[in-house]
Amino acid sequence: MGMSEDRVARSMKEQLKRGYLKLAILYTLLEGPTHGYKMLKRIRESTLGLISPTAGSLYPALRDLERNGFIVGEWAGGKRRVKIYRVTERGKKIFREVVEGHFNLVLTIRRWLLKELTPIHPMEGLDVSSGIIPLAMKILLSGGIASQEDKINFLKDLKETLKRANEVINNLITNIDKRLIELERGETGKSIDVG
Length: 195
Known about the structure:
By secondary structure, the protein is mostly helical. The protein folds into two domains: 5-87, Orthogonal Bundle (Arc Repressor Mutant, subunit A), CATH 1.10.10; 92-185. It has six helices and three strands; from the N terminus they run αβααββααα. It has helices spanning 5-30, 36-46, 55-67, 89-117, 132-141, 148-185, and strands at 34-35, 71-76, 82-87. Strands 1-3-2 form a three-stranded antiparallel sheet. The longest helix has 38 residues, at 148-185.
């Protein structure tokens, strides 16, 4: 007996969250070795709260990464011992491969979606791939040592791109509303040009 669609969707989302958490851990450790509590804080800060792991999700992910040789943990301290984690060369390599693969997938899906939406509304003005993706890749793959200037430029570029995306989306919604009215009235074959 198969799982319900809701259960399948929830399961897929949980798998994605775990994958992103592992990437966030590797990224955090590229900045330097740290212990679990500090890692939780760094992940929340570096992802602007988009990834907010709990101890209950962090430590199983750390164990899995350690078991696979992507990170190494060593106990340190006297009375209050803490396990300090660092990323291995294998972990750095897999991080780069996964991030590059992820960005390629995102660009492919973006191109596909834009191609599918073009008959409804031209999507000019929404070219994310030209500046933001390469800069994001540079920051991610810098091993946590991106310059302050690169980070500021990335956020400024992201903000401008999101503004352009918002304009395109608003135009698309307007165009869809007009097309719906046409279809509900039984009009066909007319294209609408919303600038």
